[in-house]
Amino acid sequence: MRILVANQFGSVVGGAETYSFAIAKELAATGYRVGFAFADSFSNNINLRTSDGVESLGGHGSFASWLDAVDTFAPDVVYSQVLSNPWADHEIAKRWPGILFNHNYSGACFSGTKQFRVPTTKLCSRPLGPMCLAHYLPRRCGGLNPLTALRSYRREITRRETFRQSRAVCVASRHMRSVMIQNGVPESKVHLLPLFPTHGDRDLHPPQPRPRANTILFAGRITRLKGWTHLVPAIAMAAKQLGQGLALMVAGDGPDRDKLVRLAAKWNVPLDFRGWLGPEPLRALMKQADLLAVPSLWPEPFGLVGIEAGCVGTPAVAYGVGGIPDWLIPGVSGEMAPGDDLRPEPLAKAMVRALQDENHWQRLREGAWRQAGLFSRKSHLDRLLPILQEAADSR
Questions:
Q1: Sequence spans of domains, the chain
Q2: Does residue 256 contact residue 228 with C-beta atoms inside 8 Å?
Q3: Chain segment 188-237, per-residue pLDDT in tens
Q4: 1, 104, 294, 296, 318 from 300: Cα distances, Å
Q5: DSSP H helix total and E strand total for the chain
Q6: Cα–Cα distance measured from residue 209 to residue 212, given in angstroms and rounded to the nearest whole number
Q7: DSSP string, 165-193
Q8: For strand 115-116 and strand 122-123, is the pairing parallel, antiparallel, or unpaired?
Protein backbone atom coordinates (compact mmCIF):
# COMPACT_ATOMS: atom_id res chain seq x y z
CA MET A 1 0.00 0.00 0.00
CA ARG A 2 1.32 3.40 -1.03
CA ILE A 3 0.31 6.02 1.54
CA LEU A 4 0.58 9.75 1.06
CA VAL A 5 0.53 11.90 4.21
CA ALA A 6 -0.57 15.42 3.26
CA ASN A 7 -0.04 18.45 5.46
CA GLN A 8 -0.13 22.21 4.89
CA PHE A 9 3.39 22.83 6.18
CA GLY A 10 6.67 21.01 5.87
CA SER A 11 8.02 22.23 9.21
CA VAL A 12 6.55 22.29 12.69
CA VAL A 13 3.92 24.98 13.21
CA GLY A 14 1.71 23.14 15.67
CA GLY A 15 0.42 19.79 16.79
CA ALA A 16 -0.84 18.74 13.35
CA GLU A 17 2.67 18.99 11.90
CA THR A 18 4.25 17.17 14.83
CA TYR A 19 1.74 14.36 14.40
CA SER A 20 2.03 14.18 10.60
CA PHE A 21 5.82 13.83 10.72
CA ALA A 22 5.61 11.19 13.44
CA ILE A 23 2.92 9.11 11.72
CA ALA A 24 4.70 9.27 8.35
CA LYS A 25 7.81 7.81 9.99
CA GLU A 26 5.80 5.17 11.84
CA LEU A 27 4.03 4.04 8.66
CA ALA A 28 7.34 3.84 6.80
CA ALA A 29 8.90 1.85 9.63
CA THR A 30 5.96 -0.58 9.42
CA GLY A 31 6.96 -1.35 5.83
CA TYR A 32 4.64 0.77 3.70
CA ARG A 33 5.82 3.07 0.95
CA VAL A 34 5.10 6.54 2.33
CA GLY A 35 5.21 9.97 0.75
CA PHE A 36 4.94 13.26 2.60
CA ALA A 37 3.40 16.17 0.71
CA PHE A 38 3.22 19.69 2.07
CA ALA A 39 1.23 22.35 0.25
CA ASP A 40 3.02 25.47 1.48
CA SER A 41 5.74 26.36 -1.00
CA PHE A 42 7.70 28.29 1.65
CA SER A 43 8.04 25.35 4.04
CA ASN A 44 10.97 23.01 4.36
CA ASN A 45 10.51 19.43 5.49
CA ILE A 46 13.24 19.81 8.10
CA ASN A 47 11.66 17.15 10.29
CA LEU A 48 12.09 14.36 7.73
CA ARG A 49 15.34 12.82 6.61
CA THR A 50 16.16 10.29 3.93
CA SER A 51 16.90 7.77 6.68
CA ASP A 52 13.26 8.02 7.80
CA GLY A 53 12.24 6.17 4.65
CA VAL A 54 9.68 8.81 3.67
CA GLU A 55 9.62 10.32 0.17
CA SER A 56 9.25 14.09 0.19
CA LEU A 57 6.86 15.92 -2.14
CA GLY A 58 5.92 19.57 -1.82
CA GLY A 59 7.18 23.10 -1.89
CA HIS A 60 5.95 23.57 -5.47
CA GLY A 61 4.99 26.95 -6.86
CA SER A 62 1.34 26.14 -7.52
CA PHE A 63 -1.32 23.74 -6.33
CA ALA A 64 -1.53 22.25 -9.82
CA SER A 65 2.17 21.35 -9.80
CA TRP A 66 1.77 19.96 -6.28
CA LEU A 67 -1.04 17.71 -7.51
CA ASP A 68 1.16 16.56 -10.39
CA ALA A 69 3.86 15.55 -7.92
CA VAL A 70 1.32 13.60 -5.89
CA ASP A 71 0.03 11.98 -9.08
CA THR A 72 3.56 10.84 -9.88
CA PHE A 73 3.79 9.20 -6.47
CA ALA A 74 0.49 7.40 -7.32
CA PRO A 75 -0.86 6.86 -3.79
CA ASP A 76 -3.36 4.15 -2.98
CA VAL A 77 -4.70 6.39 -0.21
CA VAL A 78 -4.14 9.98 0.93
CA TYR A 79 -4.10 10.71 4.66
CA SER A 80 -4.66 14.47 4.88
CA GLN A 81 -4.26 16.55 8.03
CA VAL A 82 -6.72 19.13 6.59
CA LEU A 83 -5.12 21.66 4.25
CA SER A 84 -5.66 25.41 4.57
CA ASN A 85 -7.56 25.61 1.31
CA PRO A 86 -10.73 23.51 1.69
CA TRP A 87 -10.88 23.00 -2.09
CA ALA A 88 -7.48 21.29 -1.94
CA ASP A 89 -8.80 18.38 0.11
CA HIS A 90 -11.90 18.36 -2.08
CA GLU A 91 -9.73 17.99 -5.20
CA ILE A 92 -7.61 15.28 -3.56
CA ALA A 93 -10.74 13.29 -2.71
CA LYS A 94 -11.82 13.42 -6.37
CA ARG A 95 -8.54 11.86 -7.53
CA TRP A 96 -7.60 9.39 -4.79
CA PRO A 97 -9.26 7.70 -1.82
CA GLY A 98 -8.93 10.30 0.90
CA ILE A 99 -9.02 10.19 4.69
CA LEU A 100 -9.01 13.36 6.80
CA PHE A 101 -7.74 13.82 10.34
CA ASN A 102 -9.47 16.82 11.90
CA HIS A 103 -7.12 18.19 14.56
CA ASN A 104 -9.34 21.14 15.48
CA TYR A 105 -12.78 22.59 14.70
CA SER A 106 -12.44 22.76 10.93
CA GLY A 107 -15.87 22.46 9.35
CA ALA A 108 -17.53 22.96 12.73
CA CYS A 109 -16.70 26.52 13.89
CA PHE A 110 -15.51 29.39 11.73
CA SER A 111 -13.81 31.22 14.63
CA GLY A 112 -12.07 27.98 15.58
CA THR A 113 -12.65 28.51 19.31
CA LYS A 114 -16.11 27.00 19.96
CA GLN A 115 -16.55 29.69 22.57
CA PHE A 116 -18.58 32.80 23.38
CA ARG A 117 -16.79 35.65 25.18
CA VAL A 118 -19.75 37.94 25.91
CA PRO A 119 -21.39 38.40 28.38
CA THR A 120 -19.20 35.73 30.03
CA THR A 121 -16.85 33.02 28.79
CA LYS A 122 -19.02 30.08 27.75
CA LEU A 123 -18.41 27.08 25.52
CA CYS A 124 -20.49 26.82 22.34
CA SER A 125 -22.27 23.57 21.55
CA ARG A 126 -24.18 24.55 18.41
CA PRO A 127 -23.41 23.11 14.95
CA LEU A 128 -22.04 25.34 12.22
CA GLY A 129 -24.88 27.24 10.56
CA PRO A 130 -26.43 30.65 9.80
CA MET A 131 -27.01 31.39 13.52
CA CYS A 132 -23.24 31.35 13.98
CA LEU A 133 -23.08 34.50 11.84
CA ALA A 134 -25.74 36.10 14.03
CA HIS A 135 -23.77 35.37 17.21
CA TYR A 136 -20.26 36.05 15.89
CA LEU A 137 -20.02 39.81 16.47
CA PRO A 138 -22.33 40.44 19.45
CA ARG A 139 -21.01 37.48 21.45
CA ARG A 140 -17.40 38.01 20.33
CA CYS A 141 -16.77 34.50 19.00
CA GLY A 142 -13.82 35.94 17.10
CA GLY A 143 -12.72 39.29 15.70
CA LEU A 144 -14.76 42.36 14.82
CA ASN A 145 -14.41 42.43 11.03
CA PRO A 146 -17.71 41.30 9.43
CA LEU A 147 -16.07 40.65 6.03
CA THR A 148 -13.49 38.39 7.60
CA ALA A 149 -16.28 36.60 9.45
CA LEU A 150 -18.23 36.03 6.23
CA ARG A 151 -15.20 34.71 4.36
CA SER A 152 -14.33 32.38 7.24
CA TYR A 153 -17.90 31.12 7.40
CA ARG A 154 -17.97 30.29 3.69
CA ARG A 155 -14.62 28.52 3.95
CA GLU A 156 -15.75 26.29 6.82
CA ILE A 157 -19.08 25.49 5.15
CA THR A 158 -17.08 24.27 2.15
CA ARG A 159 -14.78 22.28 4.40
CA ARG A 160 -17.74 20.69 6.17
CA GLU A 161 -19.00 19.39 2.83
CA THR A 162 -15.59 17.90 2.14
CA PHE A 163 -15.74 16.05 5.48
CA ARG A 164 -19.22 14.77 4.69
CA GLN A 165 -18.10 13.41 1.30
CA SER A 166 -14.74 11.93 2.34
CA ARG A 167 -14.12 8.19 2.78
CA ALA A 168 -13.40 8.62 6.49
CA VAL A 169 -12.78 11.32 9.09
CA CYS A 170 -10.46 10.63 12.03
CA VAL A 171 -10.55 12.54 15.31
CA ALA A 172 -8.60 12.28 18.56
CA SER A 173 -11.37 12.40 21.18
CA ARG A 174 -14.95 11.38 21.87
CA HIS A 175 -15.82 15.06 22.03
CA MET A 176 -14.52 15.69 18.51
CA ARG A 177 -16.35 12.63 17.24
CA SER A 178 -19.63 14.03 18.53
CA VAL A 179 -18.83 17.42 16.97
CA MET A 180 -18.27 15.87 13.55
CA ILE A 181 -21.47 13.82 13.74
CA GLN A 182 -23.38 16.89 14.93
CA ASN A 183 -22.16 18.69 11.80
CA GLY A 184 -23.49 16.10 9.41
CA VAL A 185 -20.64 13.64 8.91
CA PRO A 186 -22.18 10.14 8.87
CA GLU A 187 -21.47 8.32 12.12
CA SER A 188 -20.05 5.32 10.26
CA LYS A 189 -17.37 7.54 8.72
CA VAL A 190 -16.09 9.11 11.95
CA HIS A 191 -13.29 7.14 13.60
CA LEU A 192 -11.87 7.72 17.08
CA LEU A 193 -8.09 7.75 16.83
CA PRO A 194 -6.52 8.95 20.13
CA LEU A 195 -3.14 10.62 19.76
CA PHE A 196 0.12 9.30 21.19
CA PRO A 197 3.19 11.07 22.61
CA THR A 198 5.42 11.97 19.70
CA HIS A 199 8.51 12.88 21.76
CA GLY A 200 9.79 10.00 23.83
CA ASP A 201 8.14 6.95 25.31
CA ARG A 202 6.57 6.45 28.69
CA ASP A 203 9.00 5.75 31.55
CA LEU A 204 9.61 2.02 31.89
CA HIS A 205 8.64 1.96 35.56
CA PRO A 206 6.00 3.79 37.60
CA PRO A 207 7.18 6.91 39.43
CA GLN A 208 8.87 6.38 42.77
CA PRO A 209 7.66 8.40 45.78
CA ARG A 210 9.37 11.77 46.14
CA PRO A 211 8.89 14.98 48.10
CA ARG A 212 6.71 17.65 46.56
CA ALA A 213 8.41 20.62 44.91
CA ASN A 214 5.41 22.96 45.41
CA THR A 215 5.39 23.85 41.72
CA ILE A 216 2.65 23.90 39.11
CA LEU A 217 3.74 23.62 35.46
CA PHE A 218 2.04 25.33 32.53
CA ALA A 219 3.36 24.19 29.13
CA GLY A 220 2.21 25.86 25.94
CA ARG A 221 1.42 29.11 24.20
CA ILE A 222 0.55 32.00 26.51
CA THR A 223 -2.79 33.16 25.12
CA ARG A 224 -6.15 33.87 26.70
CA LEU A 225 -7.68 30.63 25.40
CA LYS A 226 -5.07 28.61 27.31
CA GLY A 227 -6.44 29.97 30.57
CA TRP A 228 -3.52 31.74 32.24
CA THR A 229 -5.94 34.42 33.47
CA HIS A 230 -7.65 31.76 35.59
CA LEU A 231 -4.55 29.74 36.46
CA VAL A 232 -2.69 32.48 38.35
CA PRO A 233 -5.48 33.36 40.81
CA ALA A 234 -6.30 29.66 41.16
CA ILE A 235 -2.72 28.94 42.28
CA ALA A 236 -2.90 31.77 44.82
CA MET A 237 -6.23 30.48 46.17
CA ALA A 238 -4.95 26.90 46.36
CA ALA A 239 -1.78 27.99 48.18
CA LYS A 240 -3.87 29.80 50.77
CA GLN A 241 -6.12 26.78 51.33
CA LEU A 242 -3.13 24.43 51.56
CA GLY A 243 -1.24 26.76 53.88
CA GLN A 244 1.93 26.69 51.80
CA GLY A 245 3.41 28.50 48.82
CA LEU A 246 3.00 27.31 45.25
CA ALA A 247 5.11 28.54 42.34
CA LEU A 248 4.18 28.61 38.66
CA MET A 249 6.68 27.32 36.10
CA VAL A 250 6.00 28.27 32.48
CA ALA A 251 7.45 26.27 29.59
CA GLY A 252 6.40 28.31 26.56
CA ASP A 253 5.81 31.85 25.44
CA GLY A 254 3.24 33.93 23.64
CA PRO A 255 1.66 37.35 23.12
CA ASP A 256 0.26 37.53 26.67
CA ARG A 257 3.55 36.96 28.48
CA ASP A 258 3.82 40.48 29.93
CA LYS A 259 0.21 40.36 31.12
CA LEU A 260 0.92 37.05 32.82
CA VAL A 261 3.91 38.57 34.61
CA ARG A 262 1.81 41.47 35.89
CA LEU A 263 -1.01 39.18 37.03
CA ALA A 264 1.41 36.90 38.88
CA ALA A 265 2.85 39.91 40.68
CA LYS A 266 -0.67 41.07 41.60
CA TRP A 267 -1.51 37.69 43.17
CA ASN A 268 1.99 37.18 44.68
CA VAL A 269 2.54 33.96 42.75
CA PRO A 270 6.26 33.17 42.22
CA LEU A 271 6.91 32.83 38.48
CA ASP A 272 9.64 30.86 36.75
CA PHE A 273 9.80 31.34 32.96
CA ARG A 274 11.68 28.69 31.00
CA GLY A 275 10.56 29.65 27.48
CA TRP A 276 10.09 27.14 24.69
CA LEU A 277 11.92 23.92 25.47
CA GLY A 278 12.97 20.93 23.41
CA PRO A 279 11.47 17.51 24.12
CA GLU A 280 14.08 16.35 26.63
CA PRO A 281 14.31 19.56 28.72
CA LEU A 282 10.51 19.74 28.79
CA ARG A 283 10.29 16.12 29.87
CA ALA A 284 12.76 16.82 32.70
CA LEU A 285 10.74 19.85 33.81
CA MET A 286 7.53 17.82 33.81
CA LYS A 287 9.25 15.29 36.06
CA GLN A 288 10.09 18.02 38.58
CA ALA A 289 6.60 19.55 38.78
CA ASP A 290 3.93 18.44 41.21
CA LEU A 291 1.11 19.06 38.73
CA LEU A 292 0.62 19.98 35.10
CA ALA A 293 -2.06 22.66 34.73
CA VAL A 294 -4.20 22.58 31.57
CA PRO A 295 -6.64 25.44 32.35
CA SER A 296 -7.92 25.85 28.80
CA LEU A 297 -10.96 28.09 28.39
CA TRP A 298 -11.87 26.51 25.08
CA PRO A 299 -12.75 22.86 24.41
CA GLU A 300 -9.33 21.38 23.69
CA PRO A 301 -9.79 18.83 20.89
CA PHE A 302 -7.52 16.45 22.83
CA GLY A 303 -4.75 18.01 24.97
CA LEU A 304 -1.75 15.78 24.25
CA VAL A 305 0.42 17.63 26.78
CA GLY A 306 -1.45 15.82 29.55
CA ILE A 307 -0.42 12.43 28.17
CA GLU A 308 3.18 13.61 27.82
CA ALA A 309 3.22 14.64 31.48
CA GLY A 310 1.66 11.33 32.46
CA CYS A 311 4.50 9.50 30.72
CA VAL A 312 6.84 10.75 33.48
CA GLY A 313 4.31 10.37 36.29
CA THR A 314 3.03 13.94 36.58
CA PRO A 315 -0.74 14.24 37.12
CA ALA A 316 -2.80 17.09 35.71
CA VAL A 317 -5.46 19.55 36.80
CA ALA A 318 -7.78 20.99 34.18
CA TYR A 319 -11.29 22.05 33.36
CA GLY A 320 -13.35 19.15 32.01
CA VAL A 321 -13.69 20.59 28.51
CA GLY A 322 -13.41 19.08 25.02
CA GLY A 323 -11.24 15.99 24.79
CA ILE A 324 -9.55 16.39 28.19
CA PRO A 325 -11.89 13.90 29.95
CA ASP A 326 -10.62 11.19 27.58
CA TRP A 327 -7.31 11.09 29.47
CA LEU A 328 -7.83 12.98 32.74
CA ILE A 329 -9.74 10.72 35.10
CA PRO A 330 -10.61 12.54 38.35
CA GLY A 331 -9.03 10.90 41.36
CA VAL A 332 -7.01 8.57 39.13
CA SER A 333 -4.68 10.55 36.82
CA GLY A 334 -5.36 14.02 38.20
CA GLU A 335 -8.20 16.23 39.36
CA MET A 336 -10.77 18.05 37.26
CA ALA A 337 -12.74 21.28 37.58
CA PRO A 338 -16.23 21.42 36.01
CA GLY A 339 -16.26 22.32 32.32
CA ASP A 340 -19.42 24.37 32.76
CA ASP A 341 -17.99 26.58 35.52
CA LEU A 342 -14.94 28.31 34.04
CA ARG A 343 -13.86 30.29 37.10
CA PRO A 344 -10.58 30.22 39.08
CA GLU A 345 -12.27 28.94 42.25
CA PRO A 346 -13.18 25.43 40.96
CA LEU A 347 -9.70 25.08 39.45
CA ALA A 348 -8.16 25.98 42.81
CA LYS A 349 -10.30 23.34 44.51
CA ALA A 350 -9.04 20.74 42.01
CA MET A 351 -5.44 21.65 42.92
CA VAL A 352 -6.21 21.32 46.61
CA ARG A 353 -7.81 17.90 46.08
CA ALA A 354 -4.69 16.77 44.25
CA LEU A 355 -2.15 18.10 46.77
CA GLN A 356 -3.65 18.23 50.25
CA ASP A 357 -3.02 14.54 50.96
CA GLU A 358 0.49 13.26 50.27
CA ASN A 359 -0.59 9.66 49.70
CA HIS A 360 -3.34 10.72 47.30
CA TRP A 361 -0.88 12.80 45.27
CA GLN A 362 1.52 9.86 45.05
CA ARG A 363 -1.35 7.67 43.81
CA LEU A 364 -2.24 10.28 41.21
CA ARG A 365 1.35 10.20 39.96
CA GLU A 366 1.18 6.45 39.38
CA GLY A 367 -2.34 6.75 37.94
CA ALA A 368 -1.18 9.36 35.43
CA TRP A 369 1.68 7.06 34.38
CA ARG A 370 -0.68 4.09 33.93
CA GLN A 371 -3.24 6.19 32.03
CA ALA A 372 -0.56 7.43 29.63
CA GLY A 373 0.18 3.81 28.76
CA LEU A 374 -3.21 3.56 27.06
CA PHE A 375 -2.11 6.08 24.40
CA SER A 376 0.68 4.36 22.50
CA ARG A 377 2.02 4.37 18.96
CA LYS A 378 1.03 0.74 18.59
CA SER A 379 -2.60 1.24 19.61
CA HIS A 380 -2.81 4.25 17.30
CA LEU A 381 -1.45 2.30 14.34
CA ASP A 382 -3.68 -0.67 15.13
CA ARG A 383 -6.68 1.64 14.69
CA LEU A 384 -5.35 3.62 11.73
CA LEU A 385 -4.10 0.87 9.43
CA PRO A 386 -7.48 -0.84 8.85
CA ILE A 387 -9.00 2.55 7.99
CA LEU A 388 -6.26 3.23 5.44
CA GLN A 389 -6.50 -0.28 4.00
CA GLU A 390 -10.27 -0.10 3.62
CA ALA A 391 -10.01 3.23 1.79
CA ALA A 392 -7.26 1.88 -0.48
CA ASP A 393 -9.28 -1.25 -1.24
CA SER A 394 -12.33 0.83 -2.14
CA ARG A 395 -10.48 2.37 -5.05
A1: 2-196+376-393, 215-372
A2: yes
A3: 999 999 999 998 899 999 999 999 999 999 999 999 999 999 999 999 99
A4: 33, 8, 9, 7, 11
A5: 13, 15
A6: 9
A7: HSSEEEESSHHHHHHHHHTT--GGGEEE-
A8: antiparallel
SS3 164: helix
Contact 293, 317 (CB under 8 A): yes
Residue with the bigger pLDDT between 117 and 267: it is 267
Residue type, 113: T
Closest by Cα among 262, 263, 267, 259 to 237: 267
Query: pTM for the whole thing?
Result: 0.94
CATH 3.40.50.2000 for domain 2-196+376-393: yes
Strand partners, 2: 33
Instruction: Evaluate whether the domain defined by 215-372 bears CATH number 3.30.2130.10.
Output: no
Within the chain, strands assigned E span: 2-7, 33-38, 54-58, 77-80, 98-101, 115-116, 122-123, 168-171, 190-192, 215-219, 247-251, 271-273, 291-294, 316-319, 334-337
pLDDT higher for 151 or 40?
151
Same fold, 2-196+376-393 and 215-372: yes
Cβ–Cβ under 8 Å, residues 252 and 231 = no
SS3 6: strand
